[in-house]
Design a protein that fits this description.
By secondary structure, the chain is mainly β. The chain has one domain. The protein is 9% helix and 60% strand. The protein is built from 1 helix and 5 strands. The chain has a 5-stranded antiparallel beta sheet with strand order 4-3-2-1-5. A hairpin with a 4-residue loop joins strand 3 and strand 4. The chain is elongated.
């Protein structure tokens, strides 16, 4: 299980030179990322999930904290993370893949 999400970001571009770093204005990027849970840790009350965002040229990780259910009919922990992520505003438009 994984998600596909268009990531849009804005930030300062910095060029590294032999005499120091030079700011190169504000850059906007947009790319399609494959979003995958790579690690979970926790207990019966809460888990911490490390999530990888990867495209052909970009990659970064983010950690999420979420409550977990251990009831008999509950989804497994990893599936619970994906379901939780899809409830967050930053994952609006994410698709299962």
């Amino acid at each position: 299980m994984a998600l596909r999400k268009i990531i849009e970001a804005e930030g300062k571009s910095i060029v590294q030179t032999s005499i120091g770093n030079i700011e190169n204005g504000v850059q906007r990027v947009s790319f399609s990322a494959y979003v995958k849970v790579i690690n979970i840790n926790g207990n019966k009350n809460q888990i911490s999930a490390n999530v990888n965002f990867k495209s052909e040229t970009q990659q970064f990780y983010k950690e999420y904290q979420l409550p977990v259910s251990v009831e008999t009919n509950s989804l497994n922990f990893i599936a619970q993370v994906y379901e939780y992520l899809k409830t967050l505003p930053e994952f609006v438009g994410a698709e299962d893949c």
